[in-house]
């Protein structure tokens, strides 16, 4: 069991760390708190502390002063630094003090637990390592990443010898046959300008900041280790390791991570990047080939199309022996536009993709299934990332996470390309509605969203539980709000829309009763006729005769 010390003068941040930390799973027994570095030093003298989380801006003794003292007084203590995006002047001391990780405010659950897991892994390796070379040559903090970097560089340049490095394979997950690997390469096109204007010419500080930002893009499924290539000054490499069970989604996960990396570097530092994503590898040695592929993609960048914007290349997907179709970039663009408020543009992009598929020589069923799965997966991942628990005092209950907002029915029937297209558009619309709902915060829920949905999809099997899960509101609250607004219950309104539409369709003498029943979503003609009679006290046939 381990003990953790949190040093920060902001009580809400200390409380947040206590709440979101996965302490039991990490094996943490005691958590101590201090409001400044001086009190932190006192607690270190009173208790056996293994990991310290310290803010860089504090009264009395700030983070820089604390790190300098701790480096001499407790050289084996594991430190996790907490700071803001714009506080990169503090990272110089963090580098010198060889901290385990550097967390950026606001801290989220994933980043916090990832940093703590890194520290716990180091503590575990101190206890369990039997290899004399590793225990003597690794200082088990900042030098551990340096060793991993050397290992990866030797793999990428083809000089890696598995037999000679067997003891080091566990450091990069290469000792587990079930693991999969991928690589992302980023070429920094305006590196010198950014180094000069944003980092006062300090290359080491800039590289640290860049790799630290990239570290924020990985998660427990796809862990990415990023470093500046020691022999190519404009190149950043991110090697990603995929845990078992996610093989089907790894190409999309890699593309998504690359997209986030490119966006974050541009947003934070105005850095223009050309990025390439290598193919999936079943063996770590294959990364050399994937690395070359990613570099070739970068080299294919059309300079005429740069115009000051970053560009991302992904590996094309084969759909036939002689045909190629790439939709990963399209899906990423659609998701990005939907998330950033460009809903109409996202819909146009999806329509364009579907038009391209429709105009091609063939679109196989297995590809249609794969595209739908990948689109669903991408929107779901983005929804989880967007999720924000928000208290809603004006509503009954609270919003939960946005993780299930795009629960598209992947097993649903589609008997034509039009049906298929409609389902993809429906998935996108649900995601857009979920994004708007989260971004609205504490604003009252717009119940007309449900009315508009019913007006459009009245022919489907509409259930209140579907709306409750989509908008994270209770079933009872939705029913009550809908009736207050429109004078009908939700089921009543579905019935009303169907019956109004039935009247309209019965006016077309060319349509058979069975066809109208199908168009309205009823199971069979008899069921429709019974429902129509109950609603209007006449059968569909009698109503049609009355019209004549």
From TrEMBL:
Tagged with keyword Ligase: no
PROSITE patterns: HTH_ARAC_FAMILY_1, HTH_ARAC_FAMILY_2, RESPONSE_REGULATORY
InterPro entries: CheY-like_superfamily (IPR011006), Homeodomain-like_sf (IPR009057), HptR (IPR051552), HTH_AraC (IPR018060), HTH_AraC-typ_CS (IPR018062), Sig_transdc_resp-reg_receiver (IPR001789), Tscrpt_reg_AraC-type_HTH (IPR020449)
Keyword S-adenosyl-L-methionine: no
Modified residues (4-aspartylphosphate): 55
SUPFAM superfamilies associated with the record: CheY-like (SSF52172), Homeodomain-like (SSF46689)
Compartment(s): Cytoplasm
Main location group: cytoplasm
Chain ranges of the Response regulatory domain: 3-120
Keywords annotated in UniProt: Cytoplasm, DNA-binding, Phosphoprotein, Transcription, Transcription regulation, Two-component regulatory system
Domain HTH araC/xylS-type: residue ranges: 448-546
Protein name stated in the entry: Response regulator
Source organism: Paenibacillus ottowii
